[in-house]
């Protein structure tokens, strides 16, 4: 197989993004001359970027309907809604469509930050196993049989613990023994309903899902004990009369601090993970204008003791609010942008708070009274049909992403880059071969694990390791090969010495060691 380049190199462009480019407000406004050409309104395919794990051909912001006949992959990773980074499609399809690699919950736009990895990406930091040491060919342990479900609907997976993995699809949630692949439990949705949303990860063995007759009427939240394989509780969500026209209702779902955090178009709620008791409801946030308008939620993500929420306000632009996950107490509120941007913002991490504006880039929000810090370098117009947002992991104030940056040709080059989010400047970067692909697979003992696919390879992958401190690269096991091209691999996570790949319902879970 083609080997990735050797040693990491310093960033070729050492100039951080101008925090105040001409015609752009430091609080997150539009670059001068930016237009909606190439980026359409929510409900269509934005060309500037997608939530973690989202398929650029099929992702739509939560609460909006796709065009007739178009499947709706994923919700915002608002909490990647998902913990495991998805496997990108074959580069052979590049001439047909540009890809965005990030999350694992197809149909929800969420990834799987599960106990093992970002879930897409990473809504919050993630951990991972080694996937086996050294460069060798990993052996396939097992592959789950196809699941009877529509691949255009929500699907993804959770690493429950060292013994159990769960796969979620429209038709239900299935638990498998991680070592043998034997099915150990099955939870089906209520009669006449389907799984229409899922949390990006499980926490302490509990995950959250949404139920409804279809993805446009996803109104019931349920908690699943993914160790025992049983439903713990359900609760019905309703919208006030002034929210007519919204669909979906159940937005981003997160589980943290024994709390299920639910995002809906109006607010966010915290329910006891074990019993469903309503612990808190986010207070109404004034839009900050003299007109006294309303704010609606774009995304929410809970990681540990901090929950972050992005609000789109009628006259006050885009705001970020953080809460104590267990109590719902507001920690701080800060402006992210002074213009409205429905559907274009989502969260990569809630602690630290890092968010993406599909039109202008990634930002670190330090807290009350402190302006957003642009992360990375760019050439003025960050929003581009040739830019692919990638997967990411966090360690303290260091963020590591795998993405493509701006592309001048049809030959895409992926890079893994570490950033100091407090300054927005790159610490080190490593470019892969042109037309190869890569996604973050986790963080293990100070090393970022990357799932790498060489050029012209549809199914042979390799785990690479990059030292968080300096980017030094090591090579791990190869895996894959001989798989049905229709399997549509979404994400890879590492658990101890095992490599876990989540895919479409045709090939839900495959494990190597």
UniProtKB/TrEMBL annotation:
<dbReference type="Pfam" id="PF13360">
    <property type="entry name" value="PQQ_2"/>
</dbReference>
<feature type="compositionally biased region" description="Polar residues">
    <location>
        <begin position="14"/>
        <end position="25"/>
    </location>
</feature>
<keyword id="KW-0472">Membrane</keyword>
<dbReference type="InterPro" id="IPR015943">
    <property type="entry name" value="WD40/YVTN_repeat-like_dom_sf"/>
</dbReference>
<keyword id="KW-1133">Transmembrane helix</keyword>
<dbReference type="InterPro" id="IPR002372">
    <property type="entry name" value="PQQ_rpt_dom"/>
</dbReference>
<dbReference type="InterPro" id="IPR011047">
    <property type="entry name" value="Quinoprotein_ADH-like_sf"/>
</dbReference>
<feature type="domain" description="Pyrrolo-quinoline quinone repeat">
    <location>
        <begin position="171"/>
        <end position="355"/>
    </location>
</feature>
<feature type="region of interest" description="Disordered">
    <location>
        <begin position="1"/>
        <end position="85"/>
    </location>
</feature>
<protein>
    <submittedName>
        <fullName>PQQ-binding-like beta-propeller repeat protein</fullName>
    </submittedName>
</protein>
<feature type="compositionally biased region" description="Polar residues">
    <location>
        <begin position="33"/>
        <end position="47"/>
    </location>
</feature>
<feature type="region of interest" description="Disordered">
    <location>
        <begin position="116"/>
        <end position="139"/>
    </location>
</feature>
<keyword id="KW-0812">Transmembrane</keyword>
<feature type="compositionally biased region" description="Pro residues">
    <location>
        <begin position="1"/>
        <end position="13"/>
    </location>
</feature>
<feature type="transmembrane region" description="Helical">
    <location>
        <begin position="94"/>
        <end position="118"/>
    </location>
</feature>
<feature type="compositionally biased region" description="Low complexity">
    <location>
        <begin position="119"/>
        <end position="128"/>
    </location>
</feature>
């Amino acid at each position: 197989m083609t080997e990735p380049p050797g040693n990491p190199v310093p960033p070729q462009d050492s100039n951080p993004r101008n925090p105040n480019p001409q015609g752009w407000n430091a609080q997150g406004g539009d670059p001068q001359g930016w237009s909606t050409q190439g980026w359409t309104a929510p409900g269509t395919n934005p060309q500037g970027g997608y939530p973690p794990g989202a398929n650029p051909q099929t992702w739509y912001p939560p609460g909006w309907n796709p065009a007739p006949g178009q499947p709706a992959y994923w919700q915002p990773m608002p909490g990647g809604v998902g913990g495991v980074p998805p496997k990108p499609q074959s580069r052979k399809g590049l001439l047909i469509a540009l890809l965005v690699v990030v999350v694992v919950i197809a149909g929800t736009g969420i990834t799987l930050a599960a106990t093992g990895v970002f879930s897409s990406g990473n809504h919050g930091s993630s951990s991972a196993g080694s996937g086996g040491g050294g460069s060798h060919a990993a052996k396939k342990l097992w592959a789950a049989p196809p699941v009877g479900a529509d691949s255009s609907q929500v699907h993804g997976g959770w690493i429950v613990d060292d013994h159990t993995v769960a796969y979620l699809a429209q038709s239900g949630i299935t638990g498998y023994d991680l070592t043998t692949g034997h099915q150990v439990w099955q939870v089906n949705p209520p009669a006449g309903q389907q799984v229409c949303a899922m949390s990006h990860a499980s926490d302490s063995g509990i995950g959250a899902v949404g139920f409804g007759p279809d993805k446009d009427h996803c109104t019931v939240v349920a908690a699943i004990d993914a160790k025992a394989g049983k439903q713990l509780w359900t609760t019905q969500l309703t919208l006030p009369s002034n929210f007519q026209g919204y669909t979906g209702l159940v937005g981003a779902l997160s589980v943290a601090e024994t709390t299920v955090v639910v995002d809906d178009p109006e607010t966010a709620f915290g329910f006891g993970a074990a019993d469903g008791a309503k612990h808190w409801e986010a207070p109404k946030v004034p839009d900050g204008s003299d007109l006294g308008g309303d704010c609606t939620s774009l995304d929410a993500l809970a990681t540990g003791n901090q929950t972050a929420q992005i609000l789109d306000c009628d006259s006050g632009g885009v705001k970020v609010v953080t809460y104590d996950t267990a109590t719902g107490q507001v920690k701080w509120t800060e402006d992210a942008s002074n213009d409205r941007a429905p559907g274009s913002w989502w969260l990569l991490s809630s602690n630290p708070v890092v968010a993406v504006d599909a039109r202008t880039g990634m930002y670190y929000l330090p807290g009350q009274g402190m302006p957003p810090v642009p992360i990375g370098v760019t050439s003025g117009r960050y929003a581009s049909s040739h830019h692919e947002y990638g997967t990411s992991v966090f360690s303290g104030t260091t963020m590591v992403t795998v993405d493509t940056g701006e592309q001048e040709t049809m030959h895409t080059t992926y890079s893994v880059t570490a950033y100091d989010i407090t300054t927005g400047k790159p610490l080190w970067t490593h470019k892969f071969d042109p037309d190869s692909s890569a996604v973050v697979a986790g963080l293990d003992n100070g090393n970022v694990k990357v799932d790498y696919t060489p050029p012209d390879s549809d199914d042979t992958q390799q785990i690479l390791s990059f030292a968080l401190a300096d980017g030094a690269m090591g090579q791990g096991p190869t895996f894959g090969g001989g798989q049905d091209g229709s399997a549509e691999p979404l994400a890879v996570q590492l658990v101890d010495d095992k490599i876990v790949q989540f895919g479409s319902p045709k090939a839900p879970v495959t494990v190597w060691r």
